[in-house]
């Protein structure tokens, strides 16, 4: 045991920079939460600012647009969560039907690529692609007599565009989990079903889907923790004041309050509210994951 511990000392040393990083930026920064309960003045700092209790939260929830911000966050997040489950599952099922390994790997590689591109890059691409005047999408729609759609400037089209583009970006990478789950299904089940006369659709319906249903349920339950994560990078790089009524989410709202308007106490209160709600959903999601899918962290 002592020899093993001695051999692992270099591994523990390698952990030290990561531990220091987490302590400083994840735990040390939690001290800033007290700003949510203060009338914060930067020149006075955390320990000199006046303590006002829950007044910042009262002011936050009486702001005229806070209701639509929370609604937008939930609507966009739910759309992304639903699409983030359904599309990867469908893609994994379709990809699993391809027998030619070369073609299969080619498709896998192509759909993985967008996941590794930042939204700073993709936002610039989508601004050009979805342009109402010169964008290729509107030019294609014009061939069928559909008028130009301002995908990034119309308040009705914007949240749908955010959901669709997020799904497009991540479905390839998300399908990896379901492809791995498909490999765990016993091939003899398909052989028996084929002998009994079941076609590919019946095999998918009665063997494949039940075989990966636990994984689907697990991923659905765990995604509940992201109910208030609308995707700051995506929204911030694509939205404008014209779509605030349907596209503004908690993350961008907090950014404007704290960074642009210097209302540090209000923005901290909004961020703390989001964190508390997310924590509750994380606890509930892991409880449901244990009860429904038998998944436990420890």
Into which percent range does the helicity of residues fall?
55-70%
Q: How many beta strands in the DSSP annotation?
A: 2
| Overall morphology | globular
Query: What's the pLDDT, averaged over the residues?
Result: 85
- Under the CATH scheme, the architecture of the largest domain is Orthogonal Bundle
Query: What would you report as the Rg, rounded to the nearest angstrom?
Result: 24 Å
Largest sheet: 2 strands, antiparallel
What structural class do you assign from the helix and strand content? Answer: mainly alpha
Give the CATH H-level superfamily of the largest domain: MetI-like
- Spatial strand order of the main sheet: 1-2
The proportion of residues in beta strands is under 5%
Given the structure, what is the number of helices? 14
What CATH calls the topology of the largest domain is: MetI-like fold
Order of helices and strands: HEHEHHHHHHHHHHHH
CATH class identity of the largest domain: Mainly Alpha
N→C terminal distance: 24 Å
Q: How many domains is the backbone divided into?
A: 2
| Unreliable sequence segments | none
């Amino acid at each position: 045991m002592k020899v093993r511990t001695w051999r692992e000392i270099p591994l523990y040393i390698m952990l030290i920079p990561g531990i220091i990083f987490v302590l400083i930026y994840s735990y040390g920064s939690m001290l800033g939460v007290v700003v949510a309960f203060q009338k914060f003045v930067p020149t006075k700092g955390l320990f000199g600012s006046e303590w006002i209790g829950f007044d910042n939260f009262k002011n936050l929830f009486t702001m005229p647009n806070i209701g639509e911000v929370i609604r937008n966050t939930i609507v966009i997040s739910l759309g992304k969560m639903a699409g983030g489950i359904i599309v990867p599952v469908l893609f994994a099922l379709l990809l699993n039907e391809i027998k030619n390994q070369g073609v299969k790997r080619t498709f896998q590689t192509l759909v993985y690529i967008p996941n590794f591109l930042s939204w700073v890059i993709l936002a610039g691409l989508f601004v050009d692609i979805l342009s109402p005047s010169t964008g290729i999408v509107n030019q294609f729609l014009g061939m069928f007599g559909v008028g130009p759609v301002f995908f990034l400037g119309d308040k009705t089209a914007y949240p749908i565009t955010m959901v669709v583009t997020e799904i497009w970006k991540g479905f390839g990478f998300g399908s990896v989990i379901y492809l791995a789950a498909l490999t765990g299904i016993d091939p003899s089940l398909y052989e028996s079903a084929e002998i009994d006369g079941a076609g590919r659709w019946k095999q998918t319906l009665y063997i494949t889907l039940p075989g990966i249903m636990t994984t689907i349920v697990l991923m659905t339950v765990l995604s509940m923790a992201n109910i208030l994560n609308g995707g700051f990078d995506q929204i911030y790089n694509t939205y404008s004041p014209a779509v605030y009524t349907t596209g503004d989410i908690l993350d961008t709202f907090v950014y404007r309050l704290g960074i642009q308007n210097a209302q540090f106490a209000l923005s901290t209160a909004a961020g703390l509210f989001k964190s508390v709600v997310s924590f509750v959903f994380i606890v509930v999601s892991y409880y449901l994951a244990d009860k429904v899918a038998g998944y436990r962290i420890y």
